[in-house]
Amino acid sequence: MTPQADLGIFAISLAAGLIGALAGVGGGILVIPALTIGFGVDIHLAIGASIVSVIATSSGAAAAYVRDRMTDMRVGMFLELATTTGAVCGALLATVVAPAFLYVLLGLVLLGSAGMHMARMGEETPPTGPPSKLASRLRLESSYPDRKLGREVPYSARRIPLGFLLMWIAGVVSGLLGIGSGVLKVLAMDGAMRLPMKVSSATSNFMIGVTAAASAGIYLGRGDVDPQVAAPVALGVLAGALIGARLLHHVSNRTVRLVFLPVLVAVGIETIARGLGFGI
Amino acid sequence: MTPEKFRGLVSTVLIVGVAASAVLIGAGFAAALAVGWQGSLIGSAASAQSTTDFSNLPGRLATLEPAAITQLGLAVLLATPVARVAASVLGFALERDRLYAAITLAVLAILLTSIFVLR
C-alpha cells in the first residue's frame, strides 16, 4: 500500500466507523466495496479487514454506550444467546448450503424491511404499555437517558420469542454469509421487539463484536487478516466509532432511523449483487 | 455490585482493549512506514514471513517487526469482545442475577467453542 492508499483507506474507515456507531452496524458495507473497488484489495483480505472493522466499531462505540446506559446489557446478553447459537449453526451449514440463493433471498428480505422501516420513520419513541409477563420475568424492561428529548425514556421489550428467533436467524446469516448481522439485529430489536431506535442501535453495536469475534479465529487462521490492510481500517474505524458514539446523544431517534435507512438499502443491494456473482 | 459499577466494569474492559490495540496497531503501522512491512526496528534480517501469517508472534515481537506489533494489536482487538463477555459473567454473578450469569456463561462457552473448535 502507498501512503496515499493508506490515507484513503483510513478516511473511508473513519466514515464507516462513524456511520456504524450511529446505525448499530459494523461498517463492512462501506469498507468491503471501498477496499476491493477503490484500492484493488483481494476480496478475502477485504472481508478479513471488515471483520476487524466490525469488532473495532463495536468495542469503540460500546465502551461509551454501556457507560451512558444506551446499551441494554440484559437485552444484549439474552439475544447473544440466539446469535451465537445461530452463528455456530450457520458455520456448520456453510459446507452444505449453496449461499448464492441465500444472498439473493437475504437481500430481498432486507429491501422489503426497508419499506417497513420507512413506515416507522416519523416515530420518535415506541408506544408504551404494561410489560408482558415474559419481559418482566427476563427483566427486559428499562429506560434510557435521552439527552435530545431531555428526559428518561422507559421501554419494555415486546414480542420476545419473535425477536429471539430473528436474532437466531441473524446469527445463522452471519455465520453462513459473514455479512448483514448488524442490520438484522437492529431490525429485530427496533421492528419486532419495539425497543427505542437508539437503544436498538447501541445494543446492536454492543452485540456485533461478539458475533464477529466468534468467526474471527477462522479468518485469522485462513490468512485473511492482513495487517497492511487491517491496520489503517482498524485505526480509522476506531476514530470514527468514538466520534459517532458522542454524536448519538445529540441526535433524535428519527435521525438515527434516517442514517440507518440508506445502510439497510445498501446492504440489501450489495447482498443481492454478491448472490448474483458480482464480487463486491 | 451496583448496576453503575457493573457498567463501569464492562466499559473499562472495552476501553482498555480498544486503547491497547489502538496503541499497538498505531505503533506497528508507524514502524512499517519507517522500515517497511517486511523490516525490523532493530535492523535484523528482513522476515520472509507473509504479513497474514500470525504464527511465531513472540519471536518476531522480540525483533520488533512492525508486522508482528500490528498483529499483536489486531489479536488484542479481536479478543476484546470475548473479554467483555467474560467480564459480564463476573458482573452478573456479583449482582447475584443467577439467570443472567447463566445466560452469559452459556454465551461465553458457545463463543469459545466457535473460536477454538470450529475452524
What do you see in this structure?
- The complex is a heterodimer of chains A (280) and B (119).
- Chain A is mainly α and 280 residues long.
- Chain A has helices at residues 3-23, 28-39, 43-67, 73-93, 99-119, 133-137, 160-177, 181-192, 197-222, 227-247, 253-275, and strands spanning 141-146, 151-156.
- The model of chain A has no long low-confidence stretch (mean pLDDT 89).
- Chain B has 119 residues and is an all-alpha fold.
- Chain B is elongated, with a radius of gyration of 18 Å.
- Chain B has one domain.
- In chain B, helix 1 (3-35) packs antiparallel against helix 3 (66-94) and helix 3 (66-94) packs antiparallel against helix 4.
- The model of chain B has no long low-confidence stretch (mean pLDDT 89).
- Chain B contains four helices and no strands.
- Helices cover 73% and strands 0% of the residues of chain B.
- Chain B has helices at 3-35, 57-62, 66-94, 98-116.
- Classes of the chains: A mainly alpha (280), B mainly alpha (119).
- The interface between A and B is large, with 53 and 54 residues.
Secondary structure layout plus pairing:
The complex is a heterodimer of chains A (280) and B (119).
Chain A lengths: L2 H21 L4 H12 L3 H25 L5 H21 L5 H21 L13 H5 L3 E6 L4 E6 L3 H18 L3 H12 L4 H26 L4 H21 L5 H23 L5
Antiparallel strand pairs in A: 1-2
Chain B lengths: L2 H33 L21 H6 L3 H29 L3 H19 L3
